[in-house]
Design a protein that fits this description.
The complex is a heterodimer of chains A (about 280) and B (about 290). Chain A has about 280 residues and is an all-alpha fold. Chain A has a single domain, classed as MetI-like fold (Orthogonal Bundle). Chain A is built from 12 helices and no strands. Chain B is mostly helical. Helix content of chain B is about 75%, strand content about 5%. Chain B has a two-stranded antiparallel ribbon. The longest helix of chain B is centred in the first third of the chain and has 39 residues. Chain B starts with a helix and ends with a helix. The N terminus of chain B is likely disordered. At the A-B interface, helix 1, helix 3, helix 4, helix 5 and helix 6 of A face helix 1, helix 3, helix 4, helix 5 and helix 6 of B.
Chain lengths: ~280, ~290
């Protein structure tokens, strides 16, 4: 790299990491100030672990992300298998476009549209509030599904079509051929889809914000509520912990060179690539 | 013959595999969009009216600023402001990201991998946290002003201005610009650049005639991936603009909080239609470029 290039990339990295570094440093500040560092203290971490509302939100987020990821992976994989075999070009085009909608639409529109429907249906049944864990789960499954489908479909298209037929010629039932031959072939795509769905669900704020009921708070919504009032560095402590969890995951996936670990790291990149394929 | 016999039940099984998703997609992707149109075109008792759509275009409010007091079209102003800030942020991301993507794509393979991982790390942090970090930095008593004071420059007031909102947008969506451009450039055939050089192109000529046209698909997807979230954001403007600069996302969220669901739907519907038209134009532009 030329010196100019080196300086430029260094500046970009400083721009990207300076705000995070500041959060990390001030999470260890003993005072509440956000600009003057008094001295090192773990006070805000102790405060964080005493905050039962935030800890509850972490649990809620994990429960929601695991359920949404599992449901969207099973349903999305089945859908990909079905879409791959669709003979009608017209039907296939319709399925493809519908699948693209949640990825192209801004999150706020996906969120509002689902919320309007939930509220309307809730009114019909005379419920005072129709938004709950279940509406959130539906919303999360809905925006995760396209990403799972777009991970699995290419694997099906790359697969040697004669493999499942060979298995059936050798006496496998179609279902058995599917489990023994097709599933192992598409498994990398399924796993990437699962991880993507999980991280998307963990990270989502906008869609959750519109579809969440009062009783159910995920971590991003909790962060939103915390930042609405004056913020204590407690939130910085939370951000620091999140940062190191991410860093640990990335390091693990870099150290172990296995395929599965690699997918964790690529999940986010694939998300942007998926969007990129769509918009070109 | 045997495989043909097996084909019949298989196709039924496959249709069954698609069934749950088809039902789900209709119920939770298609129908909700119809609900936006339905709410946008009805009043609180669900009678047909276009008042909410009309309100978006005609509602006025009084603004007082340096230029004096005047009447403005509230929501048109908000929309134009959203578009302006989103376009500025997208252009800055492109200007910053394009050289960076190029530099990374020319680095040794190992460096490339490390750089891309580094650029992705902030994306894994929730955007609420990232935005909030900037609030800490840009505050009047924040770190930026502390640094400026150290080198003897007067305090600058950034928080609560449009610039602060742009900084937040650029920071939050910057990786979405760099990654698609990088992935196109990494796949670019080195021989084309060499050929252009051999045929007498200078450095700038290679950039203009070879690298730039070949990287356009990445540029177009980078632009969409930055423009769409920044035009529809509502958190960044509330935190970094101190709520003074309402954007279209804030307008939707505000009406939702105030329980004016029909007007919220009308704004969302108009935003969706405008974005669809923009994307169609971009698509045509990209296709025409590809054809040339």
């Amino acid at each position: 790299m030329k010196p100019v290039s080196k300086i430029y990339t260094a500046l970009i990295l400083i721009f990207l990491f300076a705000p995070i570094a500041i959060l990390l440093v001030f999470s260890f500040n003993s005072a509440k100030s956000l600009s003057v560092f008094s001295h090192f203290s773990l006070y805000w971490y102790r405060e964080l672990f005493r905050d039962s509302e935030t800890l509850g939100a972490v649990r809620n987020t994990l429960v929601l992300a695991v359920s949404a990821a599992l449901i969207s992976t099973v349903m999305g994989t089945a859908a990909a298998v079905g879409m791959d075999k669709l003979r009608s070009r017209y039907l296939r085009a319709v399925m493809d476009s519908v699948t693209n909608i949640p990825m192209i639409n801004p999150d706020i529109i996906t969120g509002i549209s689902l919320m309007l429907m939930f509220v309307f249906v809730g009114r019909i049944f005379g419920a005072a509030t129709s938004l709950s864990f279940w509406t959130m789960l539906i919303a999360h499954v809905t925006f995760c599904l396209p990403y799972v489908i777009l991970q699995v479909l290419p694997k099906l298209q790359q697969m040697d079509r004669s493999l499942p037929e060979a298995a059936m010629d050798l006496g496998c039932t179609p279902l058995r051929a599917f489990y023994k031959v097709v599933i192992p072939e598409i498994l990398p795509g399924v796993i990437t889809g699962l991880i993507m769905a999980f991280t998307l669900s963990l990270d989502d704020f906008v869609i959750s914000y519109f579809t969440a009921g009062n009783g159910f708070q995920t971590l991003p919504i909790r962060i939103y509520n915390m930042t609405k009032k004056t913020v204590t560095p407690k939130m910085y402590a939370l951000a620091t912990i999140i940062f190191f969890v991410i860093l640990a995951l990335l390091l693990i996936s870099n150290l172990s060179d296995s395929d599965g670990a690699e997918t964790i790291k690529q999940a986010k990149q694939k998300r942007s690539k998926t969007k990129e394929v769509l918009s070109t | 013959m045997r495989s043909k016999n097996a084909a019949a039940p298989r196709s039924i099984a496959q249709r069954m595999a698609l069934a749950p998703y088809s039902v789900w997609a209709v119920l939770f992707i298609v129908v909700p969009l119809i609900f936006i149109a339905y709410y946008a075109s009805t009043d609180n008792s669900f009678h047909f009216t276009l008042d909410n759509v009309r309100r978006f275009f005609t509602a006025t409010s009084t603004v007082t600023d340096e230029a004096g007091t005047r009447e403005v079209r509230t929501y048109l102003l908000i929309f134009v402001r959203s578009l302006k800030l989103a376009v500025i942020s997208t252009v800055i991301c492109l200007i910053m990201g394009y050289p960076a993507a190029y530099i990374i794509s020319k680095a040794p393979a190992r460096t490339q991998k490390i750089m891309i991982t580094l650029i992705m790390i902030p994306m894994w942090m929730n955007f609420l946290i990232r935005t909030y970090a900037w609030m800490t930095i840009l505050q009047d008593t924040g770190i930026l002003n502390g640094l400026l004071r150290l080198i003897g420059l007067g305090p600058v007031h950034i928080i609560g201005t449009e610039s602060a909102v742009v900084v937040g947008m650029v920071y939050d969506y910057f990786p979405y610009m760099i990654l698609p451009i990088y992935s196109v450039m990494a796949k670019m055939d080195e021989k084309l650049i060499e050929a252009a050089r051999d045929l007498g192109c200078n450095g700038f000529g290679v950039l203009r005639r070879v690298i730039w046209p070949l990287s356009l698909p990445g540029v177009f997807s980078g632009i969409t991936m930055v423009l769409i979230p920044s035009i529809s954001t509502f958190y960044i403007s509330q935190k970094l603009g101190n709520g003074k600069f309402y954007l279209i996302g804030d307008a939707i969220e505000g009406q939702y909080v105030a329980n004016n669901l029909h007007f919220a739907a009308a704004i969302a519907f108009i935003l969706m239609v405008i974005l669809l038209i923009c994307m169609a134009f971009m698509q045509r532009g990209a296709n025409r470029r590809a054809a040339v």
